């Protein structure tokens, strides 16, 4: 692996980010994984991220504390109820209450800072614009705009010593295609955590948007989901 091909990969501990990490490594990047403790109620994903980073053998895994629960308005960081049993049409019709204001913009900004300190200019994020829950910061337009920002807002970009690239390898894939790709790369999806509303033991609810999309993806991929559910849809 070439030491001059460093990349920072956003690793939430979920299905998409674990697949993205595997893709980055398959492309020959020296991966530095970045996770966030942002006040999320589904904190089991942080332990999943630790295990995934360890198994993948990344060069370094950093968990940044950034308490976004101080801001109101998201069911992921407040007492608001997580929506359950929604159809795909409902998921795509409006921006859901599980949206955390500007989350991916904040996360990519921190990743950009770490990458520049590593003399790297490649960031990986597992956003997806096909099977997703209507988040505005999961769209191709957002990724392109942030790439432009990175080249304008960094010393390396302004001086022309680096050309920033935001890699979003899953953005046009269905959940089933993502799972198949991860399976080919040996991702252990049993280690991942996806649910927005797990119980105290970390078992997935099987009814939130994230669970429903995951279950649908495994079914369409013709594979069994190894996650532990308290209720399967």
Give an account of the 3D structure.
With 233 residues, the protein is an alpha/beta fold. It has a single domain (6-221), classed as 3-Layer(aba) Sandwich (Rossmann fold). The chain contains eight helices and five strands, in the order E-H-E-H-E-H-H-E-H-H-E-H-H. Helix 2 (44-56) links the parallel strand 2 and strand 3 (60-65). Helix 1 (15-26) packs across helix 7 (175-184) and helix 7 (175-184) packs across helix 8. It starts with 5 loop residues before the first strand and ends in a 12-residue tail after the last helix.
Give keywords:
38% helix, alpha/beta, 233 residues, single chain, Rossmann fold, 5-stranded parallel beta sheet, 5 strands
Strand content: 5-15%
The count of strands amounts to 5
Order of helices and strands: EHEHEHHEHHEHH
What would the principal axes of the Cα set say about the shape?
globular
State the CATH topology. Rossmann fold
**Residues in helices, as a percent range:** 25-40%
Spans of at least 5 consecutive residues whose pLDDT stays below 50 are none
